[in-house]
Amino acid sequence: MKLKVYGILILLFVLNFNGKGPGPRLSKTVSISFSGAFALYPLVQTWAAEYNKTHPDVRFDIQAGGAGKGLTDCLSGVVDVGMFSRELTAEEKAKGVWWLSLCRDAVLPTINARNPYIKQIQARGIKKEEFKAMFVDHTITSWEQLLGLQGGPHRVNIYTRADAAGAADAWASFFGKKQENIKGVGVSGDPGVADAVRKDMNALGYNNTLFVFDAKSGKKMQGIEVAPIDINEDGKIDATEDFYKNLRTFLKAVNDGKFPSPPARSLYFLTKGKTQKKEVLDFFKWVLTDGQKLVDAAGYVPLPKAVINEQLKKLTAN
Amino acid sequence: MLISRKLIDIISSRWMLVCLSICLVLPLAIGSGLVLKSLPLLKKHSFSKLVSSSDWSPSDGQFGFWPFITGSLWVTAIALVICIPLCLLASIYLTQFTPKWMLKAMRPVIDILAGIPSVVYGVWGVLVIVPLVGDTIAPRFHVDSLGYSILAGGLVLAVMSIPYILNMLLEVFRQIPLELGEASLSLGATKWETIKYIFLRKGRPGIFSAFGLGFSKALGETMAVLMVVGNVAQLPTSVFDAGYTLPALIANNYGEMMSIPSYDSALMFGALLLFAIIIAINILSRYIIYKAELI
Amino acid sequence: MTIKRKLEENFFRGLSAIFTLLIVFVLLHIIWSIAQKGISALSWQMITQEPKGGFYLGKEGGILNAIAGSFYLAIAATLLAFVISLPVALFMNIYLIKYRRLLLGIRFFLDVLWGVPSIVYGAFGFVILIYLGLRTSLGAGIITVAVMIAPIMIRAMDEVLKTIPIGLQEAAYSLGSTKTETAYKVFFRQALPGFATAVLLAFGRGIGDSASVLFTAGFTDYTPAKLSDPAATLPLSIFFQLGSPVDEVQNRAYASAIILVFIILAISISARFLSGFSKNNQ
Fold this sequence. Notes:
Oligomer: heterotrimer
Order of helices and strands of chain A: HEHEHEHEHHHEHEHEEHEHH
Distance between the termini of chain A: 66 Å
Largest sheet of chain A: 9 strands, mixed
Radius of gyration of chain A: 23 Å
Order of helices and strands of chain C: HHHHHHHHHHH
Strand content of chain C: under 5%
Shape of chain A: elongated
Number of helices of chain A: 12
């Protein structure tokens, strides 16, 4: 009796693998496979669903496994496209990778909204060297030391990403370093860092845009504030540096290039050499045109017009 | 008829032998595969330097595993220190002091604890244990801690190890013959004395082996510990410091292991270390129980 | 003197009761904190639909891909492990029963394997995949998990077979059965309920594991249709949804965890039921 039950289970299981049910399958279906960064996965998934509405004959096969795995997979030819969330190193470029910018993303330094010196920090801003002194060198260890005040001391508690992440790399390269150089408590994932900063009054961390600003309301997430970057290093945040009011003003600053890059970064599709597969090129073109409208909702910044034209040229060139 | 039966017998016994060989060869294959992958790293640095150095900066070609080894051992030790008395007394209570249905009712509880994915333990740890350590326990000892610490990792790990250790201990106490206990009771010993002098003594090898296996389970645990332990490659000075464990190192960086030279080799060396430590501990604890079984 | 003994007795009785309660309390606390966040996101849609485009940004969809992926993976891995484990366990208890030391050695070896953490299996599988230039796939995940749970299954079956009296074996021989016939017709039938428990336990291990499949099965939104497709699994799906900036998606992660806990509870209860059945039968 029990053997029968197992038999039926096995049968069901085997049947399941005979294709996807009885429905007719389009013979012309083309499959495009993707592998790579977790950061890009939701956006590419959204793109695929939207693209399928007008191109039902393309089957997307997208899997996430990390940027490095995406690069490896695409170089070894097991997938068509790699999804990549950080800058390529010189060695990686030398391996014959062809890349296409998709959109931009910005990493913001974050502090707790209850920070005892929140007003001073937001009026004064923090210089690049000061960030480095706090995140890497640990030569500035308290908020008082940073602001030149007496009292406290309230120690600066650094939070960083534990998992290898494009965001961490982008933030570290802002002051010419790598993720492994940032010395702080390592927390898992973007929400982990955001939670840690939200709970700790003396926290200093960094997060991707959508973990700082709420995608729906555009307001800052509760409990989190931005530590503004003193870009021109004049010791105060003036009108041109003050763009952290809401998501819209911030994205505009990234788009206009007011917010430095890095920590703003580009996200890429990679192929092994320039791909010759027509369906892939068509999809790439769509991503750069119609696809850009979906970028906002995923929390990324659409590419500026000039960059799009440049990328389109790259696509059509031989 | 007889020939075909004989033939089936021969084929089937060969097949059995093949399967057994697969099972026995496998760990050797894993071990040698990991050694093979770590060789490039071992060629550049000596084994003793890799294990004893605390300098971890892969981009500069520095691979010191000491912080990860100490971190792993610290977290595991804390977990066991909490878990052992808890499980020991709970298993005694369930097998000796309560009616049978209580034990039966406890089984699904243990199974669920064992079955909850470690990610969920990790989330629970971040929500409950990290603030508990940072805001309540550390101030008691007048220490400044952010909560993400060796202690938090150990506490979460202790909870996760409970089902494994408890299950094995229940098995140990179940196997001790009832007559032994009854004889002791009839001589006028109290229930607790019987447990203390008869059961704990009789079950000692089994108890040791349960802790040994619990240790290897705890040492290899990945996701939950990763989420609460702080992941700083430093030598911890107290349990309130952040630490880093070997499994966390592998899981955090495997996606990027192709990007830095020797990085993949280093991560596989980490896996090899983990494998070696666990095999050693296992052999030790199993040795104790088999020794006892042979007598 | 007697007062002291009485005191000690009561003290330890109380302490052990408290510790037991503590364990139950911790479990309830974990379940409660998951339920609190996940119950609102729990819906029929969660288990009947695949993620739609933008699912991880708060749009429609469910986690059917992960539920199906987990079941495919765990069922296939359990079957595969069963095919290997059954002959090994029978072999040990029929052919090797006379070689006590060798048997001890094998059991020792299997127990050591039991303790190897899943991340080591996963990392090893990952290296092989890269070496062979393969993508992560359902098939790779199945093999990895099968390899991981086989020692557990063999030892669990072994424990069941150990209890079968040697007389039964001798009786079968004296009636003219070959060793194979004895193994599959007599021993197998005798141990069937116990085997079912062993299989279910291994299945439970397989469905809840994340570290080994993280490296080998990959992650995707589609329900896999072939062995070479990547497959999502429940634990990874939970991990992935937790990484979303959108609150609703994070709540769905907890809802997914509730689903997983229910699956495990069902497995646990049926395994206990079957083992109870086996005891009554003997």
